[in-house]
Amino acid sequence: MVRYVARRAGQAVVVLLGVSVIVFTLIHLVPGDPVRSAMGTRFDQATYDALRSRAGLDEPLVQQYFTYLGHALTGDLGVSFRSGEPVTSLLLQRLPATASLAITALLIALLIALPLGVLAGMRAGSAWDYGATGVSQVGVSVPDFWTGILLILVFASTFGLLPPSGYEPLFGDPLGWASHVVLPALAVGVVSGAILTRFVRGAVLESLRRDYTRTARSKGLRESTIVRRHVLRGALVPIVTVTGLQLAGLLGGVIVIEIVFAWPGLGQLTIESVQNRDYPMVQGAVLLLAAIFLVVNLLVDLLYAVLDPRIRYS
C-alpha cells in the first residue's frame, strides 16, 4: 500500500509539472499586457516598467517559468497582479466556499441518484425504469445555469423564501450559509444526480447478473436483504468511481453556477483572473484544481480495497 501511494504521488508530481508547463505556455499566448490592464487609466511609463520588472515579465519565458516553478515548489504561487495579495492566500480564502457548495451538491445528487438508479435497475424494463431513465435524461439535457435561474425566479423572486445570491461562511453563520447554499447546490445537484442515476442503474444491472446474486436468491433470501447485502455491495465500486469523478469536477469549480449566484468560490475567481489577465492567479488556480482532482482520484482508488476485499495494492 505504501509503495502504491508513493508511486501515485510520483505520478501526480509529473502530471502537475505537465499542467504547469501547458498553463504557463497558453496563458502567455493570450493577447494583452497584464500590467497595462492592471494599471487601467493610471498609466505611467516609469511605473509600468518597474511593475514589469518586479513581476519578472521582462525576462525570457523559459527563465520566467523556472523562476515560477522554483517558487511554486516552496508553496509560493506568486502575487496577484490585480490585488497585490499572495495567490496562495487568495486561493485558500475561496476554497471553503467551493468545497461547501460541491459537497452539498454531491449529497443532493446522491439522494436523487441512489433511489432512482436502484429502482430502475431492480425493475428494468418496467414503468419505473422508463420513468427514472426519462427523468435522468431531462436532468442531463437541461443546463445547470438555466435550472439556477429558474430556481431564483421561483424561490427568491416570486415567493421570497431564499436569497437569490450571496454567501455566508459555514462556521460563521450556519443558518445563513444553509439558506444561501440551497439554490446553487440544487442547480448543480440535479445535473450531477441525473448523471449518477444512469451509472447507478447500470451498476445495479451488472450486479444482478453476478453469481453471488443468483446464489442469494436460490437460498430464498428476502429481496430487501439481497439488495442491501449483495446487489448494492457489488455495485459500490463503479458507483464510487463515478461519484469521485463528480466530486473532483465539482471541487474544480462550478464556474457558471458561481457566476449566476455570485458565489465567491474558485470558479468565479478563475474567471475574473482570466478576464483581467492575472497570470499568477490563473496559474495558481489551475494547479490547485489539478491537485484536487489527483487527490480525489487517489482517495477513490484507495477506497476500492475497503469496499472489495479482493482488491489488493502491491
UniProtKB/TrEMBL annotation:
Pfam families per record: BPD_transp_1, BPD_transp_1_N
Membrane topology field: Multi-pass membrane protein
Domain ABC transmembrane type-1: from-to ranges: 95-304
Bilayer-spanning residue ranges: 12-30, 99-121, 142-162, 182-200, 235-264, 284-307
Signal peptide: none
InterPro entries: BPD_transp_1_N, MetI-like, MetI-like_sf
Matching CDD domains: TM_PBP2
Main location: membrane
Alphabetical keyword list: Cell membrane, Membrane, Transmembrane, Transmembrane helix, Transport
Location of the protein in the cell: Cell membrane
Family: Belongs to the binding-protein-dependent transport system permease family.
Record's protein name: ABC transporter permease
Organism: Spongisporangium articulatum
